[in-house]
Amino acid sequence: GGTFTLLPDGTATLEHYDNVENSNESTHEFGKDSELTAALIAVGTTLRSVGALSVTVEYNGYGDSGGVETITLQWPGPPGALPASIAIPRADSGSVTSSSPGKEPRVDIRARPFDDAIENLLYDAIELSGHSGWENNDGGGGTFIVHADATASLEHSDNFTDTVNNSYTFG
After folding, report:
1. What is the rounded distance in angstroms from the CA atom of residue 153 to the CA atom of residue 146?
2. How many other C-beta atoms lie within 10 A of the C-beta of residue 95?
3. DSSP letter at 121?
4. Sign of CA dihedral 27, 30, 33, 34
5. Most buried residue, 20, 41, 95, 162, by most Cβ within 10 Å?
6. Where in the chain does DSSP place strands (E)?
7. What is the pLDDT along the chain (171 residues), one digit of tens a residue?
């Protein structure tokens, strides 16, 4: 889009802009010494107990909504039985329950359905990697993989529209 203006002195100006859809991609690794350590150990133990190698979560969103699209376990051979539930400590402040003044807060470690627990872990990883609000406006998405060795990786893309402005004078 733009504006072409013919001026009284016989010159003209053209102001032109292009909106370009774009994305920023980043990769984040979470190991046994990260803020997600306890949760990764719980997931790794569960994955090993059912014989799975890893769990992969695909997520996407835009326009102020979004969420998990798929959760898939990877197996070394024929698929095994899916875990029904898992107790994963939450990394965010919403997981800490109240305690008496002067005492350490207690972390919420309730058993949750496996898919719900993995989804909560994904959202913790997204927040820790600095991508809060990824589902807003042009949105974002990515892939989160938790391995049976209690490590994880997050590949995330934030989508955005970039405007390129050009101004020309003729005459």
Report:
1. 7
2. 18
3. H
4. positive
5. 95
6. 2-6, 12-30, 54-62, 65-74, 85-87, 96-97, 106-107, 111-113, 140-147, 152-170
7. 778 888 888 888 878 776 666 677 888 999 877 889 889 999 999 999 999 999 999 999 999 889 999 999 999 888 888 787 787 766 444 433 333 455 444 455 677 889 999 999 999 999 999 888 889 888 899 999 999 999 999 999 988 887 777 777 777
